[in-house]
Amino acid sequence: SGFEADRSTRLFELWYQQSFLKGKLDVKIGQQDLDTEFLISDYASLYLNANFGWPMAPSVNLYGGGPSWPLSSPAVRIRYRPGEKFTFMFAAADDNPPGNRYNSLPIQQATGAVLGSNSDPTSQTYNGANGTNFNMGNGALLITELQYALNPQPADTSNVTKDPGLPGVYKLGGYYDTARFPDYRYNNMGQALGGPNDTTGIPRWDRGNWMVYGIIDQMIWRPSIQSTRSLGIFVRATGNGGDRNLISFAIDAGLNLKAPFRGRDNDTIGLGWGIGRASSG
């Protein structure tokens, strides 16, 4: 979890954003934290558990957990909104947010294949922990997301007479990392890693890594459009290959009740659940 990050003073975000086409298109360039815009469920943001923010899979599968709090990366993000229902986003970022030249992944640490620093962002003891140790030598993280807003709501609902329906947001996306990743199945001689014929104990390197995901944020009940009380659900699932990833599948879901008590319109009660499946190689 990013909550356990070591105490440090660091550059987190520094970017410039410019809009085009009367606000339909905007571009952001600079040091960015991608988990503020990609892979996020709005309903899940209620919960403190790190699994409901930046998901479990990229947190353990990518170098340094990917560009998410408390780490960020140089990136270019493009967002296009042709109307109120659809949003398309794409970003290209440095895939190594710690910037450590000798950053390693759990399989390498377990086998002793490298002597590099732990990739867990909670262990920020490497040189350059000030957030300016940029290293473009690993690879690029390319991520895209398509969003669909169901039943968009008017900004002011006080005078609305016809209910537009219960709002929801549906997202589909994925990423591809161009870097090399250690294999969980085979060693550098093509033998089964950890098997009786494993003569080296050193994982081979595989080029590229990917993940796909889907997110649902849907309100399922409210007494009226003027009411602050509502009930919403969220589901988020991620899937990726298991030969070079510690987590191959993960899902989290929950139920949120807003304004559960009279006179407490800003309160929310929620119940969330999540699970990840370890890769079998």
TrEMBL record:
Cross-referenced Gene3D superfamilies, in alphabetical order? Carbohydrate-selective porin OprB (2.40.160.180)
Q: Name one GO cellular component term.
A: membrane
Superkingdom assignment = Bacteria
Give an example GO biological process: carbohydrate transport
Pfam families for this protein: OprB
According to the UniProt entry, its GO molecular function terms are: porin activity
Family named by the database record: Belongs to the OprB family.
Q: What is this protein called?
A: Carbohydrate porin
Q: Which organism is it from?
A: Komagataeibacter oboediens
Q: What is the lineage of its organism?
A: Bacteria, Pseudomonadati, Pseudomonadota, Alphaproteobacteria, Acetobacterales
